[in-house]
Known about the structure:
Residues 270-453 form the ATP-grasp domain. One of its GO terms (molecular function) is ribosomal S6-glutamic acid ligase activity. Its cofactor is Mg(2+); Mn(2+). This protein is an alpha+beta fold. Among the domains are: 11-161, Cathepsin D, subunit A, domain 1, CATH 2.40.70; 169-262, Rossmann fold (3-Layer(aba) Sandwich); 282-345, Dna Ligase, domain 1 (2-Layer Sandwich). 22% of the residues lie in helices and 33% in strands. The chain contains ten helices and 28 strands. The chain has helices spanning 157-161, 179-190, 236-249, 257-264, 266-275, 292-298, 323-335, 393-405, 434-440, 444-455, and strands at 11-13, 16-21, 26-33, 40-43, 45-50, 57-62, 73-78, 81-86, 92-104, 107-116, 125-127, 136-138, 169-173, 194-198, 203-206, 213-216, 219-220, 226-229, 252-253, 283-284, 304-308, 317-320, 340-344, 352-359, 362-370, 385-388, 410-418, 421-428. A hairpin with a 2-residue loop joins strand 16 and strand 17 (219-220). Adenosine-5'-diphosphate binds next to strand 21, strand 23, strand 27 and strand 28.
Amino acid sequence: xxxxxxxxxxxxxxxxxxxxxxxxxxxxxxxxxxxxxxxxxxxxxxxxxxxxxxxxxxxxxxxxxxxxxxxxxxxxxxxxxxxxxxxxxxxxxxxxxxxxxxxxxxxxxxxxxxxxxxxxxxxxxxxxxxxxxxxxxxxxxxxxxxxxxxxxxxxxxxxxxxxxxxxxxxxxxxxxxxxxxxxxxxxxxxxxxxxxxxxxxxxxxxxxxxxxxxxxxxxxxxxxxxxxxxxxxxxxxxxxxxxxxxxxxxxxxxxxxxxxxxxxxxxxxxxxxxxxxxxxxxxxxxxxxxxxxxxxxxxxxxxxxxxxxxxxxxxxxxxxxxxxxxxxxxxxxxxxxxxxxxxxxxxxxxxxxxxxxxxxxxxxxxxxxxxxxxxxxxxxxxxxxxxxxxxxxxxxxxxxxxxxxxxxxxxxxxxxxxxxxxxxxxxxxxxxxxxxxxxxxxxxxxxxxxxxxxxxxxxxxxxxxxxx
Length: 468
Ligand code: ADP
């Protein structure tokens, strides 16, 4: 036997060969062999450093097929060095160096690659001396001495699905340092992503047709792979304007601005739910005091619920047991010029509601919240208790449809269990993770990252039709 597993077959390279860089998600690249250069170079653009300064990463994009600039592969890698490189035209440039596996004819070995953004470079890649190990011989007059690969792989959905997970740069838009924000950062970083918390109110924007941007602290914010909005109720209009700007730039936002806006406004939200024929308590509202008794009649009379439109955490929700009580609460709210709605009281819910966490169109967890003794409100902020809930098929469907009605990929859907099925009370676009992760013992933030990783993975690019 001449070959042992430790001594791979010698390879002969011509002046141009097909290679692959699997860890970067580049299964087929045509490389020029350049023995005049020490280090290999990859033609990349949008080169950007991110991640912690102790282990900085670089992300960049590659057009693996010359002339097909619509096909873009986003890559990321750890930076192993930064080096001054003088290219063949005599220009010197400080480049990032990464180390990744080179694969040819079933053999694989690590090589160093410098990243350079030179649009004039005809080959996507140059292989330098460092990459050409001892057992490679070069025949400079020949080409394609190694197995041919095809650019067709970039058009295959299966191959693209199998692409390696790359490190993402993610922004959490939040002003609060709470459990959910901390978990989002920790869980994202544990998966190798870089997660930055951005104070939404400190973002400012240039709004123009050609180059919309978001700025922060005197600088333009980088191109994030994904944005996780955690917009507090008090800053909804400005917060959603910032999200809209990210949407304009083309950044993937787990929740869109339109869905956040509609779900925040209780009247708007009820109208959206009704339009999608999703069960909810009969709800009525009016602006004029003349209509008070009609309003009470519309929801089936007392006992009924009167709710401030701005209510959160159950603070502005009142149960009026009698018609007289309802009239006086309504007139008191009107006197304060408060916006409110009147709702049928679902008595049989008995101070319990169900919070369904919907991520990526699926209920990933559900918890039951039970109000403090004697309270019809089940909010945890009002002393309620949470426990894991088993939900029925109609409840699951109502929750999924409610999140979908607002186009929310992450939503907390609250529903009441009534005698005639689930009634959706509210769809929350910034659901808290603490209560529901504790109650269910599940890694729900992880589910959110599964969804983000799936969504920002580049899809296959169609083959170009041949002319004629
Ligand atoms: P908030 O947004 O302030 O939390 P909700 O509409 O969610 O207001 O109401 C708070 C709590 O009050 C609910 O979780 C539920 O337990 C109870 N509740 C609200 N509306 C009704 C209703 N129509 N019938 C019965 N209970 C209700």
